[in-house]
Known about the structure:
The chain is mostly helical. It has 14 helices and three strands. The chain has two domains: 13-121, no CATH class; 145-325, hpI Integrase, Chain A. It has helices at residues 33-36, 39-52, 57-76, 83-101, 105-121, 145-153, 163-182, 186-189, 220-232, 251-264, 273-286, 291-298, 303-309, 314-325, and strands spanning 197-198, 203-207, 213-217. It is elongated, with a radius of gyration of 25 Å.
Amino acid sequence: MNIFTEQTSLYGSDRSSPIPLPAYDDNGExxxxxxxxxxxxxxxxxxxxxxxxxxxxxxxxxYSSIIRSFIDYLSQEKDVYDxxxxxxxxxxxxxxxxxxxxxxxxxxxxxxxxxxxxxEFNDIYFLDxxxxxxRTKSLPKSLNEKEVRDLIDxxxxxxxxxxxKKKAKIRDKVILELLYSTGLRISELVKLHKRDIDFDxxxxxxxxxxxxxxxxxxxxxxxxxxxxYIETQNPDSEYLFINKNGRKLTPRYVQMMIKDYGKKAGIxxxxxxxxxxxxxxxxxxxxxxxxxxxxxxxxxxSLSTTQIYTNVDMDTIKTVYDNARE
Length: 326
């Protein structure tokens, strides 16, 4: 079944473009849309707009890459000189993505939405007749309490470690403890400043999505770890987590670090910062914490988002069911 539903425009392709199409060169030949519109400048302006709207660095990078890929594809296609042919080219592009690259359905959805918004920003509505594909709603994975502990315990500091290695391992352990005890996003973690931490109250002020601030909590054990960790680090750095050169860590480093410790711990599941975030929410829910409290700690504007993150694992469901039937 085709993921798109086409409708016939009553106004023709010119209605969807700020420039009458098709356009012609001096010899009366139809111009390719890439020669009519300056897509390079349009992309640059759109990227600036996203940054002004406080979209995250990763989001801007992803959107730019998606748009760039389609522009490159469009430029290689022949006879794309009006809205109808532009639409047909985009549908072919999506088909090729699914066929040749075997990408996930959610990536098809993202490509469609991003390209439509990019064009609409530039007053081009060639893709108005395309409905957004459905997204798959797979449940986030989580670790059980033992797997979380095994993951953190996989960070072993030995006497054989160099001073630099010990510092790195202390930092890594704090990162794992903090991600699990606070439910922080990876993008929030790497941007933490030391001044964001209130040790007396055991709270951290976090700048989350949409530049919204929230307060997260940490326990006494994590407090002790953070305190000891800071004593081993460069006092001049404003960031909480830094590399050996004194620069803040990248999300990529943290992702790879967690993956490596997951393997060392013998955990067969995929282990990522997001999995730890979901584990944090799931374990709070299992221990009776109200879902609205979890929503606030996670920084979700919608309770429905929190409900997706906090699906209780099947073992817990079976236990509750069996106890109720006894």
